[in-house]
């Protein structure tokens, strides 16, 4: 058999079931690959002991024919998910010593279904960022080779400031990098404004941000509670569908999760999309969007049309206000959600002469620049005298954005097609300069989906003229993930699966 | 918030006499009442008072990363019941907000409360004034649910403070009155009445020693009938008596400042019970900016009118209704009825005694003999050595004329200390009232024969008969029927 890490999740699952491979050898193959890929910094913690024990247990179950949906499938877990007895930091200095005594609902479901944990994946600190550069562990590096850089040159740069290498996107940068570098078969991720879809688009992988309430948020470090939603990143549309079936479902411990049956998402793969109406929102044709993104978008629409869908132009008139409104709502919630990291009960404490001093020293030391910036923005927009001008108005915009989509869906549109990002991946250090807005603009096509609580799927659709992956985004009605999987599969088939890079880092 | 409306007519009896004229006190109260429930407002941890420090703490109470609140339906029901008991509007949709501030005993860094949309809206409470007499109506502005904070312990170490999170997340009802209260007596009576209602409902145990009921007291003064003055808020008063003292002190402090030409600063103050004074805690400028916003972890709280109706159908009889019934059914005075309904246990005890008996006589024995004795011994009806059955038997023995009122008091004493069946005690100890006229006559004759001088005096001064009655009672060991003694004596002494 060829390299086991090259398998898709679905292929590995079938091979395990057919007893062509064992869970242990599959896990070991990934652990070996991880060992050689340390410099990519996709993982912030390897858990080989856990992994091998879980894989052995899976082999027993596979032998007995008691395999779960994900039996023996090695996964990487974003470090925002609490894992019992395994350090969980949200990639923040303030939680560097934090070991939870509880397991997040979603990871519990994955383990229940037989998945194997390889380790914890890198991300932007508290999921705040679009490049993974704000992580307390340093950036994870994209395994995608930058244009005009040879494998040898790239390897020389790796770990040596990483300058000239690419970001994997963020905040789920480690998840996307690990999938693209074949360091796991599936990865959990979270998405508050694009944190699943943008890294997937940057790395040629598939990312599914489900409908708000589809997956439980319990046990996942919160960034902005009304926007956060967890979902998978994997190599193919089918793989994300398989993962989501395991991750989704009602959780009495999260009252914002929805009590609704979880369908067999994989069954949607390959379903006909004939007669589906696909909306192309004209407002997403933003100023300065590159010709190649525009062309890719048209190509995507053409593929769907060829498969029998009807393409219609639609208007989502409040799109323009989404990003500024998002950067009020998300920091507002974050400023409150992160108040608990005060050094009093857990996490890293910096002693002070009194409690105020302790708070100030602990939080100044524990939070990075971007987190501090967002806490300050959030505190400001909620302050007396500013609340109505900022927070209340942003919430009104949010309602309007939601209504934009509702009108489109009410007019018969089944899904909306947009680019996933305004550009391909950029270089490490390139956008982490003085102006944070440059980074925020990455989320311009993705934040609307979070603001409206809708499902969004990022699927690779081609490469830029320099050879970098580009993705398209499909946006569905609430709980219409199945339609997105059917449409995504059509694009994936038409575009041809992105070839994952050779292991130049090893 | 609704505009402040003055619902009261200035009452000169309640004015403070200042050097420059009269002043009227305006009081509004915010009561924090701990909800009686097994578990906390948003977690399954026990809400029980006490326990070892940090023994009742769920992951969400300690604000561990990724933890989420889930509303405890029992607390919602208790808030609705309380609202119904306050004759208040129940809001079928309410919203939980976050009140943000940093403090070590506030693990989340915010308190989950209800700010703009509380679960209960306007209502009213009718309050009897035991000291000055009369009745007032105090408007309720709102009742909302919120989390309690933990407790900081500053006396466990010379260099560190400790935190106990047992209370963290326990459900509180904040009950806000309108500024309808005009004296410390009214404030005390209002809190007492509120506590009575909540105890009847079983929604708050009202135990102020354990902090289950605390009051924030807003006090301002003004010229009678004039515009409202600037208020000061006295925080966290945990005794009704201290609240009365704090109001008296604070009102006079404000009058003093105003009469000296000064102005009142809006501020938060603390009452120092040892010194009997209030002192500034923080000024308006130092007030927190709580940055309220709707808690995104919780959906709006919604229920149907039929849900409310169902709870309403199962409410117990409340003190006002019970009082009216006691007056109508047992012929009690308003005062006696008020005293009896003050505590549900007392009212139940009384009804058990009064059932099928003379209500007035029963009330008399319950209030004067039993409550008097219980008070003296620091007990209450639930720990009374004399059961309602025993007291009922004593009342029966009086009503049927088997024992005299005086002997009944002796009998009560015996039952209190020794217990036993009152009727059997009367039999065994020969305490039966002497109704045999012959025997009483014999005793009277003996007394008359022994005191010829007194007989002469009595003829001139009929009130002397009292002395004779006393002597005859002594002669008969208290068993003679006093009325019979009186009648016979009058005849024998020739007094009309």
Secondary-structure map:
The complex is a heterodimer of chains A (506) and B (496).
Chain A: H1 9-17, H2 23-36, E1 43-46, H3 48-64, E2 74-78, H4 105-112, E3 116-121, H5 151-157, H6 173-180, E4 186-191, H7 197-203, E5 206-209, E6 229-234, H8 237-247, E7 277-281, H9 291-306, E8 310-314, H10 322-337, H11 355-366, H12 369-381, H13 388-410, E9 415-419, H14 436-440, H15 447-452, E10 456-463, E11 469-476, H16 481-495
Parallel strand pairs in A: 2-3, 2-4, 7-8, 7-9
Antiparallel strand pairs in A: 1-3, 4-6, 5-6, 5-10, 9-11, 10-11
Helix pairs in contact in A: 2-3, 6-7, 10-12, 10-13
Chain B: E1 16-18, E2 21-34, H1 73-85, E3 93-94, E4 97-100, E5 110-113, E6 123-128, E7 135-147, E8 151-153, E9 162-164, E10 171-177, H2 184-201, E11 213-222, E12 232-237, H3 240-259, E13 267-272, E14 277-283, E15 293-294, E16 301-302, H4 305-313, H5 319-330, H6 334-341, H7 344-354, H8 359-377, H9 388-399, H10 405-418, H11 422-428, H12 437-450, H13 452-460, H14 465-475, H15 482-493
Parallel strand pairs in B: 12-13
Antiparallel strand pairs in B: 1-2, 2-10, 2-11, 3-16, 4-5, 4-15, 6-7, 7-10, 8-9, 11-12, 13-14
Describe the structure.
The complex is a heterodimer of chains A (506) and B (496). Chain A has 506 residues and is of the alpha/beta class. Chain A has one domain: Amidase signature (AS) domain (Amidase signature (AS) enzymes, Alpha-Beta Complex). Chain A is 37% helix and 12% strand. Chain A has an eleven-stranded mixed sheet, with helices on both faces. The longest helix of chain A has 23 residues. Chain A starts with 8 loop residues before the first helix and ends in an 11-residue tail after the last helix. In chain B, 38% of the residues lie in helices and 19% in strands. The longest helix of chain B is centred in the middle third of the chain and has 20 residues. By secondary structure, chain B is of the alpha+beta class. In chain B, α12 crosses α14. Chain B is built from 15 helices and 16 strands. In chain B, strands 1, 2, 6, 7, 10, 11, 12, 13 and 14 form a nine-stranded mixed sheet that branches. In chain B, strands 5-4-15 form a three-stranded antiparallel sheet, with no helix packed on it. The mean pLDDT of chain B is 93. The termini of chain B are far apart. In chain B, a hairpin with a 4-residue loop joins β13 and β14. Classes of the chains: A alpha/beta (506), B alpha+beta (496). Chains A and B meet through α10 of A and loops of B.
């Amino acid at each position: 058999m060829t390299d086991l890490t090259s398998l898709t999740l679905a292929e590995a699952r079938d091979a395990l079931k057919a007893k062509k491979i064992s869970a242990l050898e599959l896990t070991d193959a990934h652990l070996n690959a991880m060992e050689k890929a340390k410099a990519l910094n996709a993982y912030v913690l390897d858990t080989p002991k856990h992994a091998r024990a879980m894989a052995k247990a899976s082999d027993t179950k596979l032998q007995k024919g008691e395999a779960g949906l994900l039996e023996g499938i090695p996964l990487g877990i974003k470090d925002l998910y609490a894992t019992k007895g395994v350090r969980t930091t949200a990639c923040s200095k303030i939680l560097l010593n934090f070991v939870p005594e509880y397991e997040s609902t979603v990871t519990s479901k994955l383990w229940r279904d037989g998945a194997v944990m390889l380790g914890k994946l890198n991300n932007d600190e508290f999921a705040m960022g679009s490049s993974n550069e704000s992580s307390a562990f340093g950036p994870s590096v994209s395994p995608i080779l930058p244009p005009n850089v040879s494998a040898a040159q790239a390897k020389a740069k790796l770990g040596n400031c990483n300058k000239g290498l690419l970001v994997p996107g963020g905040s789920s940068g480690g998840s996307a990098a690990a999938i693209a570098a074949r360091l796991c078969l599936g990865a959990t991720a979270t998405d508050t404004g694009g944190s699943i879809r943008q890294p997937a688009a940057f790395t040629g992988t598939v990312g599914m941000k489900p409908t708000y309430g589809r997956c439980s948020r319990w046990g996942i470090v919160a960034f902005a509670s009304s926007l956060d939603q967890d979902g998978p990143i994997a190599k193919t549309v089918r793989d994300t569908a398989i993962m989501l079936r395991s991750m989704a479902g009602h959780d009495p411990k999260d009252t914002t999760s929805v009590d609704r049956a979880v369908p067999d998402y994989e069954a949607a793969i390959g379903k006909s999309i004939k007669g589906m109406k696909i909306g192309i929102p004209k407002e997403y044709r933003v100023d300065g969007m590159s010709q190649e993104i525009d062309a890719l978008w048209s190509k995507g629409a053409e593929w769907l049309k060829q498969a029998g869908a009807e393409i219609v132009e639609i208007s989502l008139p409040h799109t323009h206000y989404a990003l500024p409104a998002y950067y009020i709502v998300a920091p507002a919630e974050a400023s409150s959600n992160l108040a608990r990291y005060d050094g009093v009960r857990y996490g890293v404490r910096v002693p002070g002469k009194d409690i105020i001093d302790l708070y100030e020293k602990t939080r100044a030391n524990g939070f990075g620049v971007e987190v501090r910036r967002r806490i300050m923005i959030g505190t400001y927009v909620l302050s007396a005298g500013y609340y109505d001008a900022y927070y209340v108005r942003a919430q009104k915009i949010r309602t309007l954005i939601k209504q934009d989509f509702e009108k489109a869906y009410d007019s018969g549109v089944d899904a909306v097609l947009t680019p996933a990002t305004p550009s391909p991946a950029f270089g490490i250090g390139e956008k982490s300069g003085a102006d944070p807005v440059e980074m925020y603009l990455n989320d311009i096509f993705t934040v609307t989906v979070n603001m409206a609580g809708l499902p969004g799927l990022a699927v690779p659709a081609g490469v830029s003229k320099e050879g970098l992956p580009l993705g398209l985004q499909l946006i569905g009605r609430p709980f219409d993930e199945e339609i997105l999987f059917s449409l995504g599969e059509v694009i994936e088939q038409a575009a041809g699966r992105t070839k994952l890079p050779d292991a130049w880092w090893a | 918030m609704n505009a402040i409306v003055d619902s009261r007519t200035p009452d000169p009896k309640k004015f403070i006499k200042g050097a420059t004229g009269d002043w009227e006190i305006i009081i509004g109260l915010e009561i924090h009442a701990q909800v009686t429930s097994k578990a906390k407002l948003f977690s399954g941890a026990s809400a029980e008072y006490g326990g070892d420090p940090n023994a009742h703490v769920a992951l969400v109470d300690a604000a561990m990363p990724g933890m989420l609140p889930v509303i405890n339906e029992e607390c919602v029901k208790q808030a609705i019941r309380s609202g119904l008991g306050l004759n208040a509007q129940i809001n079928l949709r309410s919203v939980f907000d976050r009140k943000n501030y940093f403090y070590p005993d506030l693990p989340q860094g915010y308190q989950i409360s209800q700010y703009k949309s509380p679960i209960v809206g306007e209502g009213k409470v009718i309050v009897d004034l035991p000291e000055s007499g009369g009745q007032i109506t105090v408007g309720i502005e709102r009742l909302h649910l919120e989390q309690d904070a933990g407790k900081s312990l500053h006396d466990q170490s010379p260099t560190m403070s400790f935190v106990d999170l047992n209370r963290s997340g326990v459900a509180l009802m904040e009950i806000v009155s309108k500024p309808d209260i005009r004296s410390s007596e009214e404030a005390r009576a209002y809190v007492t009445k509120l506590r009575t209602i909540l105890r009847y409902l079983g929604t708050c145990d009202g135990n102020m020693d354990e902090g289950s009921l605390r009051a924030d007291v807003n006090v301002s003064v003004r010229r009678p009938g004039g515009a409202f003055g600037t208020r000061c808020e006295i925080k966290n008063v945990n005794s009704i008596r201290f609240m009365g003292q704090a109001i008296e002190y604070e009102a006079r402090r404000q009058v003093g400042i105003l009469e000296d030409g000064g102005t009142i600063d809006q501020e938060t103050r603390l009452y120092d019970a040892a010194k009997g004074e209030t002192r500034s805690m923080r000024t308006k400028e130092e007030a927190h900016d709580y940055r309220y916003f709707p808690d995104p972890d919780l959906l709006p709280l919604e229920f149907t009118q039929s849900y409310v109706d169902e709870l309403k159908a199962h409410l117990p009889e409340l003190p006002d209704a019970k009082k009216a019934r006691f007056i109508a059914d047992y012929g009690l005075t308003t005062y006696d009825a008020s005293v009896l309904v003050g505590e549900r246990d007392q009212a139940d005890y009384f009804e058990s005694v009064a059932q099928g008996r003379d209500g007035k006589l029963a009330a008399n024995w319950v209030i004067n003999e039993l409550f008097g004795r219980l008070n003296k011994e620091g007990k209450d009806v639930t720990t009374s050595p004399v059961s309602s059955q025993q007291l009922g038997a004593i009342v029966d023995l009086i009503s049927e004329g088997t024992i005299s009122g005086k002997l009944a008091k002796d009998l009560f004493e015996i039952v209190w200390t020794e217990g036993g069946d009152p009727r059997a005690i009367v039999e065994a100890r020969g305490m039966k009232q002497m109704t045999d006229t012959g025997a009483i006559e014999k005793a009277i004759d003996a007394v008359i024969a022994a005191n010829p001088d007194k007989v002469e005096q009595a003829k001139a001064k009929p009130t002397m008969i009292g002395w004779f009655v006393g002597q005859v009672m002594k002669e008969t060991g208290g068993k003679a029927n006093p009325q019979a003694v009186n009648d016979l004596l009058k005849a024998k002494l020739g007094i009309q």
